[in-house]
Structure formats: structure tokens, C-alpha cells
């Protein structure tokens, strides 16, 4: 029987194990913020992967944003060496999940299995992908114990809040050095027949406008910072938003609306702070002397960061020319440059072949509208041969009643396993499983 067919059969036989593994991961509530139970899930993964012959490290990202004794930023990296020299393929998944939110009809940390779906916060984003990569690796080891090279699996912290306590920290420590790791697959939920080549860029900034406090009954004696911010927003509506809508990219960004430049007003806070939840009194009458706005600008491969910043500065200069008392402070919060792996990169070609073999149709190539941990592997690790590929429907991420399909996880595990065969054995001319050749 061809090696590829053996692998497919081995993964199908592990269906119950895949379901149980996914449920176990979902039942560890790794909420971020604040960063709960990171150590617990890393220890669980260490036990699981250690029993499969992986050498395991638990790594705390000391001093990174959010790291403290109450909520330490733990990561796990497991490596299984082959019987001979060769390349290393690394599967990286983040262990953190976002807040539950309202509207659930399922237990968000129950791992309910119903009608071929497993429900829970993080099911598709991305504990289902993590489970699929583990099953793929274990099945590969069962059918091909004498492989060349190495397999790595990591569970990393804080992707949902920038990844600085996870992949960024590991990249700084050399874990994604191209001399150590050669291929990276991040099992984010981009749909099982898609290869995600990269993502748009992001520039976050906080603008604060200033005024002068005065009695609310005599606003003419003060200077309203919120009105200044309103003037900024009016100018943005009048000139910046229409200009961004005209900028289009050749990147295959999904969904279609994200193929242009975008700007989101993430938050606005002006005047007095809101009272505690149990405060029932009224606010005092004051002219606000400060207003803060956080903007989230997503930009394209065809743009540069200096252009992005200057466009917003032009807005402020225009308002300053119109309002005599206009004063402001602009602070950059975060920047990530766009990244896109070439379609002829080795990991892209390999996964595309495995998708065709498993699904019986060509892979679709996409780019993510938002960033994920590829940014750190590219920018800090200097490793370009990286993609996102995994099970799950992107639109379900961060939603109530989030789920991942069991069949989708099995298919993705087969794609990952076939990729291991292609990269770590001599079977470079991949034998198509019987169902894919129809």
C-alpha cells in the first residue's frame, strides 16, 4: 500500500482520539486577556507530545507585555528528531482564546460534540488546528518512523493580543532561525482548502486632543476637547475614508471588502471617566479637557508605513489650520508591515499538492485581512517559508457558539501528514490517496 494511503487510513483510525484531544484543549479556559491557565495547557501538551517521543521545553516569556506572577506567559515547544539529517517542519498554534461574550447556547468550555461539530471558545481559532497538527504528526510517526529531518510542534501565548509573549519572544530567542527550522505551518482557520500566504499591514495609533476644563453651564469659558476630536473625525469622513476606498491591492485578501485600505475607529474616550458599575449618581458639569481616540489602520503591500502615517498627519494639519486652539498628541501603539509568502515557496507547493491529493481540487490562495503570528516569524525570525493552513471557518472566529467540524479537522490532518511525507521522506513524488485520484 502506498505510504500516503497508509497515512490517510491511520488518521481516519484516530478520529475518536482527535475528538477527545480537541475537547481536552477546549476544557482548559486559556482566556486572553488576562492570560489564564497557560501553564496548564502547556503541561498537558508536554505530556501528550512527550509520550510520542518529542523532546519538550516549557518556556516563559519573562518581561513581555502582560507577563506577571499571576499570569505568566508560558509556551511549549516540542521537537522530534528523525533518524537522519534533513529539514525541519514546524507547526505553530496559539493556545490563547478571546473573551466568551454574550449569545452562547453551548457551554463555551464544555467541548460539546454534536452533529459532527465540536463547540467551544477557541474551537476553530485555533485549538482544532492544534489538535489536527498533533494527530497528523503522530500518524506520520506511526507509518514512517525512519524519516529524515525533524518535526516541531509549538503552543504559544498571546497571539490574540499581538503575540509578543509567544512567537515574537521565541523568534527573538532563535527558535525560528532559518538554519534551525525550514518550513512553518500555522493552523489558523482559513478553511481546509485554502493556503493563506500572509496578511495586510497594521498601524495602531492613539490621538489625544486637548482643551480647557470649565463649568458646563459656561462652555464658552473653556475649550471642548471632544469638539476638537469631532473636527478630526469630520475631516477623516470628508477626505481620508474616500481616499482609502480607492486604494486596491493585488494581494488575494479575503473577504473582498478587505482588498482595499481600511481604517477602524477602535475607541473614543472623552471627558470624565465613567463611574463604577454600582454608582447611581450624576456626572458633574464640566467641559472636557481631553479626548482620546484609538485608530486601527490596515494597509496593503503596495503602501509603505511612511505614507500611512503622513496621510493621517495631513488630517491633523488641516484641522490645525481651521481651529486656532487645536492641540493634540499622537502616539504610535503598534505597527506590522504586510507580508506575503511567494506561491512558489517550498511549503506552499507542498501543502498545495497535499490539498489537491486530499480534497481532489486545487488549493485556493488567500491573504488574511488581519495579522497573525506569521509577522513575527518573518520580521524577527527572518523565515519567509511560512504559511497559515488549518481547519475551521474563518467567519466563526470570536463568535458565540464557535465550533470546528470533525471532518474538516480530519481532512486538514491528512493535508498536514501528506506534507510531512513530501518534505521528510524520499517520497517526493507524492502518491495520491485513492479517493483523491477520482
UniProtKB/TrEMBL annotation:
<keyword id="KW-0170">Cobalt</keyword>
<dbReference type="InterPro" id="IPR011650">
    <property type="entry name" value="Peptidase_M20_dimer"/>
</dbReference>
<dbReference type="Pfam" id="PF01546">
    <property type="entry name" value="Peptidase_M20"/>
</dbReference>
<dbReference type="Pfam" id="PF07687">
    <property type="entry name" value="M20_dimer"/>
</dbReference>
<dbReference type="InterPro" id="IPR036264">
    <property type="entry name" value="Bact_exopeptidase_dim_dom"/>
</dbReference>
<keyword id="KW-0479">Metal-binding</keyword>
<keyword id="KW-0862">Zinc</keyword>
<feature type="domain" description="Peptidase M20 dimerisation">
    <location>
        <begin position="198"/>
        <end position="322"/>
    </location>
</feature>
<dbReference type="InterPro" id="IPR050072">
    <property type="entry name" value="Peptidase_M20A"/>
</dbReference>
<dbReference type="InterPro" id="IPR010182">
    <property type="entry name" value="ArgE/DapE"/>
</dbReference>
<comment type="similarity">
    <text>Belongs to the peptidase M20A family.</text>
</comment>
<protein>
    <submittedName>
        <fullName>Acetylornithine deacetylase/succinyl-diaminopimelate desuccinylase family protein</fullName>
    </submittedName>
</protein>
<keyword id="KW-0378">Hydrolase</keyword>
<dbReference type="InterPro" id="IPR002933">
    <property type="entry name" value="Peptidase_M20"/>
</dbReference>
Amino acid at each position: 500500500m502506498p505510504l500516503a494511503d497508509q497515512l490517510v487510513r491511520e488518521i481516519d483510525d484516530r478520529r475518536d482520539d482527535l475528538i477527545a484531544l480537541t475537547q481536552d484543549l477546549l476544557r482548559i479556559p486559556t482566556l486572553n486577556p488576562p492570560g489564564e491557565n497557560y501553564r496548564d495547557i502547556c503541561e498537558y501538551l508536554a505530556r501528550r507530545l512527550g509520550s510520542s517521543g518529542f523532546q519538550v521545553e516549557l518556556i516563559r516569556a519573562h518581561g513581555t507585555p502582560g507577563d506577571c506572577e499571576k499570569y505568566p506567559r508560558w509556551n511549549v515547544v516540542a521537537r522530534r528528531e528523525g533518524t537522519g539529517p534533513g529539514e525541519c517542519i514546524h507547526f505553530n498554534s496559539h493556545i490563547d482564546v478571546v473573551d466568551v461574550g454574550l449569545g452562547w447556547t453551548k457551554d463555551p468550555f464544555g467541548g460539546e460534540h454534536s452533529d459532527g461539530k465540536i463547540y467551544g471558545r477557541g474551537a476553530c481559532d485555533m485549538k482544532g488546528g492544534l489538535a489536527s497538527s498533533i494527530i497528523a504528526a503522530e500518524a506520520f510517526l506511526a507509518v514512517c518512523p525512519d524519516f529524515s529531518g525533524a518535526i516541531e510542534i509549538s503552543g504559544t501565548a498571546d497571539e490574540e493580543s499581538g503575540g509578543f509573549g509567544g512567537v515574537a519572544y521565541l523568534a527573538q530567542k532563535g527558535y525560528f532561525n532559518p538554519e534551525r527550522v525550514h518550513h512553518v505551518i500555522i493552523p489558523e482557520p482559513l478553511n481546509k482548502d485554502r493556503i493563506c500566504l500572509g496578511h495586510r499591514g497594521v498601524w495602531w495609533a492613539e490621538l489625544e486632543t486637548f482643551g480647557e476644563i470649565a463649568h458646563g453651564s459656561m462652555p464658552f469659558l473653556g475649550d471642548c476637547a471632544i469638539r476638537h476630536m469631532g473636527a478630526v473625525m469630520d475631516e477623516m469622513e470628508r477626505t481620508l475614508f474616500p481616499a482609502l476606498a480607492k486604494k486596491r491591492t493585488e494581494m488575494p485578501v479575503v473577504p473582498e471588502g478587505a482588498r482595499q485600505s481600511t481604517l477602524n475607529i477602535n475607541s473614543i474616550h472623552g471627558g470624565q471617566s465613567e463611574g463604577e458599575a454600582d454608582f447611581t449618581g450624576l456626572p458633574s458639569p464640566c467641559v472636557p479637557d481631553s479626548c482620546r481616540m484609538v485608530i486601527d489602520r490596515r494597509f496593503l503591500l503596495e503602501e509603505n508605513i511612511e505614507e500611512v502615517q503622513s496621510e493621517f498627519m495631513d488630517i491633523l494639519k488641516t484641522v490645525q489650520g481651521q481651529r486656532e486652539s487645536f492641540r493634540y498628541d499622537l502616539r504610535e501603539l503598534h505597527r506590522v508591515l504586510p507580508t506575503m509568502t511567494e506561491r512558489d515557496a517550498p511549503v506552499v507547493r507542498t501543502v498545495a499538492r497535499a490539498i489537491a491529493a486530499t480534497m481532489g481540487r486545487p488549493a485556493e490562495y488567500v491573504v488574511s485581512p488581519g495579522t497573525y503570528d506569521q509577522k513575527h516569524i518573518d520580521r524577527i525570525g527572518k523565515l519567509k517559508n511560512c504559511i497559515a493552513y488549518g481547519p475551521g471557518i474563518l467567519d466563526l472566529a470570536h463568535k458565540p457558539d464557535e465550533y470546528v467540524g470533525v471532518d474538516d479537522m480530519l481532512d486538514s490532518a491528512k493535508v498536514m501528514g501528506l506534507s510531512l511525507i513530501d518534505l521528510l521522506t524520499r517520497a517526493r513524488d507524492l502518491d495520491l490517496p485513492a479517493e483523491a485520484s477520482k
